[in-house]
Amino acid sequence: MASVTSDERIGVLFVCMGNICRSPMAEAIFKHHACGAGVLDRFRVDSAGTGGWHEGEPPDSRMRARAEAEGVPMAGRAREIRPGDLDAFDYILCMDSENVRGVLALGPGAASVERMLDYHRSQDHDEVPDPYYGSGDGFKLVFDLLDEACRGLLDALRDRHDLR
Questions:
Q1: Which are the catalytic amino acids?
Q2: Which domain holds residue 77?
Q3: For residue 81, which of 48, 95, 115, 137 is within the disulfide window of CB 3.0 to 4.6 Å?
Q4: Residue 88 falls within a domain, yes or no?
Q5: Tens-digit pLDDT profile for residues 62-78
């Protein structure tokens, strides 16, 4: 894992398939909670997709609507993960096993590549489902899963890096 000194920001990258639903939502929720905890300035947070077919597009409108309903600001443009991200970030959080395989296929790097729901207290789900082709209820489920997992991730990183 990349080493982080007290004056460097901790790099956290969230990854899904196209970077328009799950990973930008995770990015927004994590930033929201880190801001609320007064530690956002200690992080460098971004999101990316394993595929580039949505490059430059804003987050899915249904995901943005869910974020707004939950009081979480969501912005940004889709981008594809690059091999350099594996050294530019300390932690890469993947939404599902396919995303983990896609990230690891980029080659070696210093980042810790993990599954997002490893930070969720419940074991009801082991992957964040992709809501893109489903109904509106899927976006609520994804928000709820990511909200809990982002809280767990933030707590873990605050402990690991002694952020108070």
A1: 16, 22, 130
A2: 14-82+98-160
A3: 48
A4: no
A5: 999 999 999 999 999 99
